[in-house]
């Protein structure tokens, strides 16, 4: 079995083993979500809150697929440490530096897994009285859910695999893969 060099290289004993979602599927997914959001918020201005770091590529595609007056802000939180399973502890590392009061806010996330990150963020942000607050996630892993959370906009449901690419990382690498892969341990 040949291991590819460059951005497909092994990192920390893991590698992109199996193509799960192609670039064409990602493009179609983003266009569909952008169109849906454009229709749902017709006549309004919206604020996308990109949850760093994983959603930066998805958000950059999504914002261009939305035909509305739109602003983008960033927030960062952590729940995973460096590994492939959720620690359950959600920490805000970088808060918003704008006021969201009376704004139509959409939280843009890479993937919803246990749901702990977004339920915590929703709780924190709703205390700031936005006009509305919804969630748009590129990927959803519903089998791993630990809290009840139903994102209003879901791109693609994924199986119980650790996925990388299109902004999603393993140990901060692989975000620059253009498709989604299942990360698996290398066999020696
Ligand atoms: P929770 O469990 O709080 O987790 O819904 C959401 C965050 O966990 C990360 N996550 C992943 N990152 N591949 C990744 O690269 C995955 O398969 C995966 N599952 C969860 C992600 O950062 C997300 O924001
Ligand atoms: Mg991550």
Write up what this structure looks like.
Helix 2 links the parallel strand 2 (46-52) and strand 3 (70-78). The protein is 20% helix and 31% strand. By secondary structure, it is α/β, with parallel strands linked by helices. The mean pLDDT is 94. The chain has a single domain (21-159), classed as Rossmann fold (3-Layer(aba) Sandwich), CATH 3.40.50.2020. Strands 4-3-2-5-6-7 form a six-stranded mixed β-sheet, with helices on both faces. A three-stranded antiparallel β-sheet has the order 1-9-8. The termini are close together. Bound molecules: xanthosine-5'-monophosphate and magnesium ion. The site of magnesium ion has 3 residues, from loops. InterPro entries: HGPRT, Hxn_phspho_trans, PRTase-like, PRTase_dom.
Q: How is the topology of this model organized?
A:
Elements: E1 14-21, H1 23-40, E2 46-52, H2 56-64, E3 70-78, E4 91-94, E5 104-112, H3 116-126, E6 132-140, E7 153-157, E8 163-164, E9 180-185
Parallel strand pairs: 2-3, 2-5, 5-6, 6-7
Antiparallel strand pairs: 1-9, 3-4, 8-9
This protein binds xanthosine-5'-monophosphate and magnesium ion (MG).
């Amino acid at each position: 079995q040949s291991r590819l060099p460059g951005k497909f290289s092994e990192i920390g004993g893991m590698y992109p083993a199996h193509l799960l979602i192609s670039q064409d599927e990602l493009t179609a997914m983003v266009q569909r979500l952008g169109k849906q959001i454009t229709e749902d918020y017709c006549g309004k201005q919206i604020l996308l809150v990109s949850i760093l770091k994983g959603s930066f590529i998805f958000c950059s595609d999504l914002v261009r697929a939305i035909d509305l007056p739109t602003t983008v802000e960033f927030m960062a939180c952590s729940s995973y440490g460096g590994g492939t399973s959720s620690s359950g502890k959600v920490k805000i590392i970088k808060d918003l530096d704008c006021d969201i009061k009376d704004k139509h806010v959409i939280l843009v996330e890479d993937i919803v897994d246990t749901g702990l990150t977004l339920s915590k963020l929703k709780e924190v942000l709703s205390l700031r009285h936005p006009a509305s607050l919804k969630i748009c996630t590129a990927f959803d892993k519903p089998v791993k859910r630990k809290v009840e959370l139903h994102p209003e906009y879901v791109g693609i449901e994924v199986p119980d695999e650790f996925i990388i690419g299109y902004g999603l990382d393993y140990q901060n690498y692989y975000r620059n893969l253009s498709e989604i892969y299942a990360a698996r341990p290398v066999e020696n």
